[in-house]
Amino acid sequence: MSKKAILAVILACLAGSAGAAEFRPETMGVATLDRAPGPNWIWANDFTFGFMPDGRTYLLDAGSGEFLGMMSTGSMFLKLDIPADRKVIYNAATYYERVVRGKRTDVINIFDPKTLDVIGEIPIPPKRLTSIPTLINSGITNDQRFLVLYNMTPAQSVSVVDLANRRLASEVITPGCAMTLPGERRFRMLCADGTLLSVELDAEGREARRARSAPFFDPRKDPLTEKPVRSGDQWWFASFGSMIQPLDLSAEVPRFLPAWSLLGDADRAEGWRVGGIQHLGVHDKSGRLYALMHQGGPDTHKDPGTEVWVYDLATRKRVQRIALRDPATSILITPADEPLLIAMLIGVPNVEVYSATTGQHQRTIGEIGHTVAFLQNY
Amino acid sequence: MSKKAILAVILACLAGSAGAAEFRPETMGVATLDRAPGPNWIWANDFTFGFMPDGRTYLLDAGSGEFLGMMSTGSMFLKLDIPADRKVIYNAATYYERVVRGKRTDVINIFDPKTLDVIGEIPIPPKRLTSIPTLINSGITNDQRFLVLYNMTPAQSVSVVDLANRRLASEVITPGCAMTLPGERRFRMLCADGTLLSVELDAEGREARRARSAPFFDPRKDPLTEKPVRSGDQWWFASFGSMIQPLDLSAEVPRFLPAWSLLGDADRAEGWRVGGIQHLGVHDKSGRLYALMHQGGPDTHKDPGTEVWVYDLATRKRVQRIALRDPATSILITPADEPLLIAMLIGVPNVEVYSATTGQHQRTIGEIGHTVAFLQNY
Amino acid sequence: MKTFDRWIENSARGMARRTSRRHLLTRLGGLLAGSAMALPLLPVARGEGATRVPLPLDADVEGDAGDPTKCEYWRNCAIDGYACACCGGTPTSCPPGSELSRITWIGTCRHPVDGRDYVVSYNDCCGKSPCGRCQCNRNEGDRPLYLPAKSNDINWCQGTKSNIYHCTITAVIGQAVEG
Amino acid sequence: MKTFDRWIENSARGMARRTSRRHLLTRLGGLLAGSAMALPLLPVARGEGATRVPLPLDADVEGDAGDPTKCEYWRNCAIDGYACACCGGTPTSCPPGSELSRITWIGTCRHPVDGRDYVVSYNDCCGKSPCGRCQCNRNEGDRPLYLPAKSNDINWCQGTKSNIYHCTITAVIGQAVEG
Known about the structure:
The complex is a heterotetramer, with two copies of chain A and two copies of chain C.
Chain A: H1 12-15, E1 29-30, E2 41-46, E3 55-61, E4 66-74, E5 89-98, E6 101-112, E7 117-124, E8 138-140, E9 146-152, E10 156-162, E11 167-173, E12 177-182, E13 186-191, E14 196-201, E15 207-212, E16 229-231, E17 234-238, E18 243-248, E19 255-256, E20 260-261, H2 265-269, E21 272-274, E22 280-283, E23 288-295, E24 305-312, E25 317-328, E26 330-333, E27 340-344, E28 351-355, E29 361-365, E30 372-377
Antiparallel strand pairs in A: 2-3, 2-30, 3-4, 5-6, 6-7, 8-9, 9-10, 10-11, 12-13, 13-14, 14-15, 16-17, 17-18, 18-19, 18-20, 21-23, 22-23, 23-24, 24-25, 26-27, 27-28, 28-29
Chain C: E1 2-3, H1 7-12, E2 18-19, E3 80-82, E4 93-94, E5 99-100, E6 105-110, E7 117-122, E8 124-126, E9 135-137, E10 165-168, E11 171-175
Antiparallel strand pairs in C: 1-2, 3-9, 5-8, 6-7, 7-11, 8-10
């Protein structure tokens, strides 16, 4: 009470007003999120490019259009890391003593999903890559024990964070390799020579052993983007040339499944290609892959898409074309039985919600952030 | 070098290219502002309402439209305090350990006007009022010795900062009075009962004595806004009812000069009134007062203005009406011989520049900030 | 009375402005504060077991005046900031993870159905990034900063762990009486 | 090749997009770094006393390709960020008070007058709030993050006192050779 001076002021004019009706005042409080997350609850991650220190993520029910809350996620925000039990939510955060200058401090923030408030921090080396956000900037190992976070200073490494003991476990040095794809108690990285680096962790989160695959793509001829989607240990990458490269990362030895093209000859003739910031989506139950497509030449790999093309993963055939009402740079498919397709154009604060099955536009959720680039399912 | 890993990588493909033409690479560097500030250099202060931790001010040459640079001014930014010799620039800044949470630290930032970089800090109590910015949130005494800063927690006080010794001099407790109008080695405050509080400082910046004026306006009937302009020790306040109250604060005893109306009967009949966030301007040499006017009823005192009305301060007659191309909430008159009228509408990132003499629109300087509310001459 | 709501959105729409005229009750409003234990401390006469004078339901209000996510919402007559109802809160609840400030300013808004004037407490919710949705600025009864109890230009995130402003709630804490 | 520049401004204008097609030199580009003493360390052949191959003046370039404040400026072919020329800097100078990062990515842009390809170093300027002006995103030769030397998605404020990004300069550091 000494610091928080609280004044008890009753207005004389009111206290003395004889005619005041009796009225029970409304109770004020703070909302909590007691409901279990729904299948269409999504996080819209805003890296606030023009206001970089004030990153935040917005929690939306895409099914109802409801804005459920937000979390302040620090400078140069990339993404959330959500454990399987969803009992807490993590994000790798950077803070400067004077907003844009002074001492840098990096931590893993720990949020309570019911209050959306920070309940703890785990200190980490101030080395994490800051970039346009992707799924594979960081992740949690399948055994839920470690959070792996890609660093670049420009030296390349991975911070391994022990989530059980809430401390840094180790830093794994990984020259020539980038990003981090978590597996059982391991992670993989994409290397500049088109190989995959696998790092197995021991029970303390230190490197147990590493292995490097043979090249499985040619970064010169047709680079894979660093923007995959995953379903469990199955991963799909798109290439600049609109090939899909599936990876099965369930076992210690990665399996490189045959690549296939999103395009037919007619599509190629019309100049269609995959592009955007978050340009793939996947829906488990229906076995569908979604790709954000536009017409353009070389170097248009980040251009907004105008259509979303839908593929049956079993047959690798396109089964649908969804014409977007507005161009988009990021898409997400929700895991609902009747999945939704979420689409955003960076810099435009509108979350566009479509049925992922019919392609019909359902709603616009407006006033969502500054530069939302990466969408996540809860 | 240990922390900053610097790699020296020469691309093999280039190093070995026999046909490379000889070419002297361009030199890279960092610009400095070696020119003396021009009479049309202005600061557009952005309190970044939606990204409150990342306040900044933009330095513009309104005469040329040039963007000269910017300074990062911390959370909940209000205004700059610029000493007469312009050898440094100050701003009262707030920082949180974790951008929006954690320990609060308040300082006076000291900027070098040539590099626009912070060269020092003076710690102050973490009590300053944060609000829509005005001229009288803070100021420097005429003798250039002290910076006075209004606090509200909600307890009301003024921090007196010793600029010569770069430390807090004192905190003056001022219940019932707000804002701070600096004078020779003193400051005044506006009190809730319509009086003016004068506080004289001693050589150490402590309160030497205080005096309270008789009421000079009726805050119930026609409150003065807290948005005055000044020229030296002459101050002009507008009231909700579009009266102008001039104050002569040059001596220890304030002089309350006769109030006069911005409106004639015809203006009143048409519903004209003064309004906006920064709604007055003054030009010394020509003795002109500028008022931002709109048509509206009671409670429209913050509405955007559509015209700027110009008055001769000697005769108190309106001499000109300037129709704005776009509505504005803030105006500023530059001190140039041919003054410019700067106008902005909060939330719209366009600085509109007009001739203050002819009223002609001269240029738009675009992409200036998020919520610029307070404009300052250099 | 014209208001200028949702600065940024409206600028894109050419400053579409809304009209909702009425006279203000200058006698009302004041610096409301309660202790953490007993919130709110009321500036209106009441008793614990007082017969409740029912507030008409928002559902009974026609149009935007009954919609807490609109600047035209009847309780928003003196708001200056983001309406919490658009931010994961309600007119009486801060969004998850924000902190309710007990120090506040008060407005008096006329209910469009019963025609009565109610005292609205504009408490700020604090400690997380500004919400950014439903920016509203209406100024019925707003007064300058030297009359703090009546000023909506003040950041009322005071007495809270952090003074960063998130959004504003609009709880009805009493019925106002002209006189 | 389509580019999408100035996200926000363009979205208001309905995503007006600009076209500037040409093939890219994938052989060029790389992680440029110099010591603080000798900047830049060049990835092209040169000598101290080398005869200067003059770069055509911007004034000789027609239209926006000669204007450093435009996304269409010829040097901007692989920029992703705010052009420092709009922020108080120039194509070769960071704005006052920002810090030049020595670690960078490289693009190869064809000069519209002499038809030659030049190596452009996209150095970021760091340590103050993002400039917010002239947001440009063009991706000629841009490659994924695992090829860092060629990736404009990376925040190249590295090795600087602060990693907060302010804007990007576009210095010409060499002439490129196809082969």
